[in-house]
Design brief:
Helix content is about 20%, strand content about 30%. The chain is α+β, with helices and mostly antiparallel strands. It has a four-stranded antiparallel sheet, covered by helices on one side. Strand 4 (about 65) and strand 5 form a beta hairpin.
Length: about 100
Amino acid sequence: MNVYVGNLPYGMTDDELRALFQEFGEVSRAQIVIDKPTGRSKGFGFVEMPDNAQAEEAIKSLNDKMVKGRNIKVNQARPREDRGGEKRSFRPREY
């Protein structure tokens, strides 16, 4: 299951995020989203856990937990919504 983790402390690392979730089971991936121009954390990330029951337990236990002075938000990640950027239609100019 892919888990969304929001309101992360900006100084948190991928390894710290992984360790937080490993208390509940196997973590196949833990990644904090980074702003490309600045190289700084965007304050959220994703954790992939192969066992859904372990992921559900992590969500229940970690949602609203205080981590480095911030209450993190944890829930099942939703698929990204279509923003319509790829389906543009262009009309030829009329002269």
